[in-house]
Design brief:
Largest interface: A-B, 31 and 42 residues
Mean pLDDT of chain B: 90
Distance between the termini of chain B: 71 Å
Low-confidence stretches of chain A: 1-14
Helix content of chain B: 40-55%
Number of strands of chain A: 0
Low-confidence stretches of chain B: 1-8, 23-30
Structural class of chain B: alpha/beta
Oligomer: heterodimer
Number of helices of chain A: 14
Order of helices and strands of chain A: HHHHHHHHHHHHHH
CATH topology of the largest domain in chain B: D-Maltodextrin-Binding Protein, domain 2
CATH superfamily of the largest domain in chain B: Periplasmic binding protein-like II
Number of domains of chain A: 2
Number of helices of chain B: 19
Radius of gyration of chain A: 25 Å
CATH topology of the largest domain in chain A: MetI-like fold
CATH architecture of the largest domain in chain A: Orthogonal Bundle
Radius of gyration of chain B: 25 Å
Strand content of chain A: under 5%
CATH superfamily of the largest domain in chain A: MetI-like
CATH architecture of the largest domain in chain B: 3-Layer(aba) Sandwich
Mean pLDDT of chain A: 88
CATH class of the largest domain in chain B: Alpha Beta
Largest sheet of chain A: none
CATH class of the largest domain in chain A: Mainly Alpha
Structural class of chain A: mainly alpha
Helix content of chain A: over 70%
Shape of chain B: globular
């Protein structure tokens, strides 16, 4: 879609008006042609399944039978909305988002500023902070499960060494399990936001800092009055990408705790997985994921409207 | 001229490259791609076989397949190993619904029953099996019985794998738990079990025994259900529509577990690999798990032996178990010739039960189970007598190996084992979750 708009734009600007229309139509066609391979996949693997999922959520579909199964009307939605398990797992997803988003935004900003100010060895810190991001979730889960292993794990060893005699029971204590997974996630995905912030920092003209220091602004003032305000747009982007990424939580929890201990970390996507694949109730699972889709949609809309306003003003 | 030539050559280069790529796709991946797109199916004389066997079991199954292949060089055996657990059964279901199932697949008996109810398995006619010797009198009766669903045979059992007790012979000897002949003292009593664990703890300086808890609902369920079955309890009836969980019996079992925890006899926070490490490093004298970890301890050269899980509550002996079995996913296009080939294959693998039994599983094939050769296989044959006293998960669409039934039970039991929940609260937890499933119409 976007490809097409761009072609039309350049077409009208450069070509004279007389030949423009025919030319435009030709380029229009070429645009669609170029977009076709993508559109085919998009419809086949995204739009199609989504529509099928919406339809399925109104049926008692089962993994063990072909076809949609009996019509259920709004029953699946009623069941989800009145299920304590559904709301509990929804809360776990939100809790995870609340636990991971602030540190992933704030820490990424701090580390980016730190790295940006270095005069030597910048490449090293960039690599160090970004490297964990390229590890697959399965490997990351393995490493952190080892770190968290009671008694013989590295965390316990280190904490005992510095005098904390009874470290928390990381993944096995219902009060700590979610925090432990969040901690591992911050380490793992920090690199992405870090890179976005680094890019944002490089966009800020150096002259501003020079002028500010000539005027006698301290480093702290420069940070507060120049760096952070000029990074506003980056922050808005990082924030929404992070919220959506955190809401998608599944892999780490599935691999590290399976939603335990005693369901205390099961996120919504694992609930959907459990009822869909373990319990074969794909119709109900579709309804639960549609409700979850609405939550993500709401978040995206809030961002959409929030990010449009400042642009108009500017 | 040069520029035009360049443009032409670039275009033709791309075209050429595209053709080469497409050609490669069609010819290179020929068999799979073409047959997948055209739906022609694999060439005749292919026998496709899916299983979920990894580790030592995987190696032994491979050896058995190789032996079959040597005897039947004309059959192209196409064996696929998939990861254990729910995804495996999802694949079997979807492949069958999509009419491209394997000819034969391994399934747990508790899962075969669900697949059979969903109509995804071929019923097996016992007359048809007679020429291959695949008759009821050649199999462990309990397993053969479980292989039937609503009176029809749907699976051919390969083994029975019960929960067993592993013990470190050095530690138990020092703790005075071994008799003069080297066998373990009788632990058929809650006090005897607790005393033995206490004695072992004194020797190890850490724990008496170990049961995996963290991120492992299945092991918790095995441990609890064995004790609960020994009290004569059941959890589900009427295909899962009725919950018959006996609070008093469950509380008795959970109190025993709580007691072990309070005395520090078993660790309260340990995952599956952690439990193995605890046993291998001699921090625990006893290890409770299914029979399949035998290879792990043989490889680690741990001084160990295995025996049947003690009859702690002294009722009719019972122990939790499941079985691997062979099933034929439904395929309307399967010919009689292929069907015959499948039975020959199954018979060949069963005939190699001596290889299979090295993995600790009790072979279901009685001609081997009753042989002197199996008796000599130690410690694997120490607990062979339990094969006829095992209990499978109560039948329900939501129970069985890797099911949410085991998750619900295992999570609540695990909370008691971790010292986080009192038995009464755990039982209330189990019941409130099970009720939701009992009230849901079966999707199967």
């Amino acid at each position: 879609m976007s490809t097409q708009t761009v072609t039309v734009d350049t077409g009208t600007r450069v070509r004279p008006a007389t030949t423009g229309r025919r030319k435009r139509r030709g380029e229009n066609r070429a645009g669609w042609g170029l977009a076709t391979p993508f559109l085919v996949f998009y419809v086949l693997f995204l739009i199609g399944p989504t529509v099928y999922g919406i339809v399925m959520s109104f049926f008692n579909s089962s993994l063990q039978h072909s076809g949609l199964g009996g019509f259920a009307g709004p029953d699946n939605y009623t069941e989800a909305l009145t299920s304590s398990d559904f709301w509990q797992s929804m809360w776990h997803t939100v809790l995870f988002t609340l636990l991971t988003t602030p540190p992933l935004v704030a820490l990424a900003l701090m580390l980016a500023i730190f790295t940006d100010r270095l005069s030597r060895g910048r490449w090293f810190y960039r690599l160090v902070f970004f490297a964990p991001y390229v590890i697959p979730s399965a490997a990351m889960a393995l490493i952190w499960v080892w770190l968290y292993t009671p008694e013989i794990g590295l965390w316990d060893k280190w904490l005992t060494a510095i005098g904390i005699s009874s470290p928390p029971n990381w993944l096995a204590d219902p009060n700590w399990a979610m925090i432990s997974v969040a901690l591992a996630t911050v380490w793992w995905t920090l690199g992405f936001n870090f890179v976005l912030y680094l890019a944002g920092l490089q966009e800020i003209p150096r002259e501003l800092y020079e002028a500010a220091s000539v005027d006698g602004a301290s480093r702290w003032h420069q940070l507060r009055r120049i760096t952070i305000p000029l990074l506003n747009r980056t922050t808005a982007l990082v924030l929404v990408l992070q919220i959506i990424a955190s809401l998608k939580i599944f892999d780490q929890i599935f691999l590290m705790t399976s939603g335990g201990p005693n369901y205390s970390t099961r996120p919504l996507l694992e609930y959907v997985y459990d009822i869909g694949f373990t319990d074969f109730r794909t119709g109900y699972a579709a309804a639960a994921s549609m409700l979850y889709f609405l939550v993500i949609l709401a978040v995206s809309l809030v961002w959409f409207f929030a990010s449009r306003r400042p642009q108009r003003g500017a | 001229m040069a520029a035009e030539g360049y443009a032409l050559s670039r275009r033709s280069l791309l075209r050429g490259a595209g053709l080469i790529g497409l050609g490669g796709l069609v010819s290179g991946c020929g068999s799979a791609f073409a047959s997948g797109v055209a739906g022609t199916g694999p060439p005749p004389n292919t026998l496709s076989y899916w299983n979920l066997l990894g580790g030592g079991d995987g190696t032994r199954m491979q050896a058995m397949q190789d032996a079959y292949q040597k005897q039947h060089p004309n059959v192209a055996l196409d064996a696929v190993v998939l990861a254990w657990g729910n995804p495996y059964y999802t694949k079997v279901s979807l492949a069958t619904l999509g009419q491209r199932p394997p000819d034969v697949a391994i399934s747990h008996l508790t899962r075969a029953s669900i697949l059979a109810q969903a109509g995804l398995l071929e019923p097996l006619n016992e007359n048809e099996l007679t020429p291959y010797g695949l008759t009821g009198d050649h199999f462990t009766p309990t397993a053969w019985n479980m292989a039937h669903t609503n009176g029809t045979l749907y699976a051919i059992p390969l083994d029975t794998h019960p929960l067993v007790m592993y013990y470190n012979t050095d530690i138990c000897k020092k703790a005075g738990l071994l008799g003069k002949d080297g066998s373990l003292k009788n632990l058929d009593d809650p006090a005897a079990l607790t005393d033995a664990l206490t004695a072992a703890k004194k020797v190890t300086g850490a724990y008496g025994g170990v049961v995996s808890i963290n991120n492992d609902t299945a092991t918790q369920w095995r441990f609890f259900s064995t004790l609960y079955y020994q009290l004569g309890g059941s959890v589900l009836e009427d295909d899962g529509k009725t919950i018959v969980l006996d609070d008093a019996k469950a509380e008795k079992v959970l109190s025993l577990i709580q007691n072990l925890v309070k005395q520090g006899l078993i660790p309260t926070s340990v995952d599956y690999p952690g439990a193995i490490t605890t046993f291998v490093t001699g921090k625990a004298g006893f290890y409770f798990e299914g029979d399949w970890e035998i290879t792990t301890y043989e490889t680690a050269k741990t001084p160990f032996s295995m025996t049947a899980f003690p009859n702690v509550f002294g009722g009719r002996y019972a122990v939790q178990a499941d079985s691997h079995s062979f099933v034929l996913p439904k395929d309307p296009s399967r010919t009689d010739a292929t069907r015959k080939q499948i039975f020959v294959f199954i018979r060949s693998l069963l005939g190699q039960s001596s290889t299979w039994a090295q993995g600790g599983h009790i072979p279901a094939w009685l001609p081997f189970q009753k042989s002197a050769a199996y008796d000599k296989l130690k410690p694997a044959s120490n607990y062979k007598h339990v094969a006829n006293y095992v209990r499978y998960d109560d039948r329900a669409w939501y129970s069985g190996s890797g099911s949410d039934f085991e998750n619900i039970m295992g999570f609540a039991i695990g909370a008691v084992s971790a010292g986080q929940m009192a038995p009464v609260a755990a039982i209330a937890d189990m019941r409130s979750k099970l009720v939701q499933y009992a009230n849901t119409p079966s999707p199967v």
